Amino acid sequence: MATVFKKPHALRDVPLHYCPGCTHGIVHRLISEVIDELGIEGSTIGVSPVGCTYNNYLYFNCDMVQASHGRAPAVATGIRRALPDKTVFTYQGDGDLAAIGTAEIVHAATRGEKITTIFVNNAIYGMTSGQMAPTTLLNQVTTTTPYGRKADLHGFPIHVCEMLATLEGTAFIERVSLHDIKNINNAKKAIKKAFEVQLAGKGFSIVEILSTCPSNWGLNPLEAMKWLQENMLPVYQLGNFKGKDLEV
Ligand SMILES: Cc1ncc(C[n+]2csc(CCOP(=O)(O)OP(=O)(O)O)c2C)c(N)n1
Prior knowledge:
Blueprint: H1 24-38, E1 44-48, E2 63-66, H2 72-82, E3 87-93, H3 94-100, H4 102-110, E4 116-121, H5 151-154, H6 160-164, E5 170-177, H7 181-199, E6 204-210, H8 214-217, H9 221-232, E7 239-242
Parallel strand pairs: 1-2, 1-3, 3-4, 4-6, 5-6
Antiparallel strand pairs: 5-7
Thiamine diphosphate is lined by residues 50-53, 69, 93-96, 100, 122, 125-128, 133.
């Protein structure tokens, strides 16, 4: 008998606008499953970014607020401090979080804001058609690095988890990947733990999720999964950087 996968309640029953093979849909589902399992749909507020997921407030059943580009951690800070009984998460791409929003994420993290950040790293600016992001790999071709990213011209990729792990305010930091089922299941565990850390009042939590952008990488969905595995995994080490043994 075929397995029936029930849609989580926290995910609205509407078609998503993402490109074929884009992993944002998987991330939406994992967050929604976690919200369902923790029974926090009515007390959760998400903050949408600017990027391909700018309108993901249409996809979640919990309350959502739109922030301007990069400012989600600042908006989430205000919401969480004004409404301390709520669970607040930001959903951010690598352009949003690691370029225009670098100051906001670093300072929210070092202040130990009791928010959870879901950081989707697809190594490129998706929405605006594939410019270099801070997380773009060396030699990766993008529309703004047509000969590949070069360290001497464009600098090196930013390792967000490693950087934030140096800050005392951070409680839980983990990098996961979506390139196969086992890793998707691990990603869900990390997202759940990050929310639990917030519910336990322990401080700032973030999960970086290595993701694909087939359209801007110029690959089909299966090739994109393979590209992630072969090229991103050696650069972005998976695992927990902080808070693995936190009691929640
Ligand atoms: C203040 C401001 N600057 C620049 C932009 C243009 N812009 C929109 S989305 C985006 C990059 C999004 O990339 P990322 O955060 O990696 O998310 P993705 O689209 O890949 O999911 C940029 C530069 C904007 N909308 N607002």
